[in-house]
From TrEMBL:
UniProt-listed Enzyme Commission number(s): 4.1.1.48
The entry's keywords: Amino-acid biosynthesis, Aromatic amino acid biosynthesis, Decarboxylase, Lyase, Tryptophan biosynthesis
Protein name per its UniProtKB record: indole-3-glycerol-phosphate synthase
Any coiled-coil regions, as ranges: none
This protein's pathway: Amino-acid biosynthesis; L-tryptophan biosynthesis; L-tryptophan from chorismate: step 4/5
Broad enzyme group: lyase
A Gene Ontology biological process term: L-tryptophan biosynthetic process
Xref: Pfam families: IGPS
One Gene Ontology term of the molecular function aspect: indole-3-glycerol-phosphate synthase activity
Domain Indole-3-glycerol phosphate synthase, first and last residues per copy: 2-103
Domain of life: Bacteria
Species: Acinetobacter ursingii
SUPFAM superfamilies in alphabetical order: Ribulose-phoshate binding barrel
Reaction equation(s) it catalyzes: 1-(2-carboxyphenylamino)-1-deoxy-D-ribulose 5-phosphate + H(+) = (1S,2R)-1-C-(indol-3-yl)glycerol 3-phosphate + CO2 + H2O
Length: 112
């Protein structure tokens, strides 16, 4: 991460559980934290992973929730728990019109 900061790049550190979160928190506070809701061994997705790990963080710490965000209800649930950053990929890529899927998911006017 030190080299990335020297080049003024942001660093996103991905975690999956409490143990990885503990290690990530020992890195620079400048690092962004991402919680992957997908278990990479079973490929099962559980959005509660982000909610569980968010409780262990300082409330001011930005957390990016990754994987499994597919509906406006998923977005609302995360926002209700003060999670406002999302990494969404698969649900867009499965759509014939990812731009329309984005608009439907986030409720953003299509002019953007």
């Amino acid at each position: 991460s030190k080299t990335a900061f020297e080049y003024d790049l942001d660093v996103l550190v991905e975690v999956h559980d409490e143990e990885e979160l503990e290690r990530a928190l020992k890195l620079s506070e400048q690092c962004l934290l991402g919680v992957n809701n997908r278990n990479l061994k079973t490929f099962e997705v559980d959005l509660n992973t982000s909610l569980r790990l968010k409780k262990l963080l300082d409330p001011s710490r930005l957390l990016v929730t990754e994987s499994g965000i597919a509906t406006p209800a998923d977005i609302a649930m995360m926002q209700d728990h003060d999670i406002h950053a999302f990494l969404v990929g698969e649900s867009f890529m499965k759509q014939p019109r990812p731009d329309q899927a984005f608009t439907a998911l986030f409720g953003v006017p299509e002019q953007l």
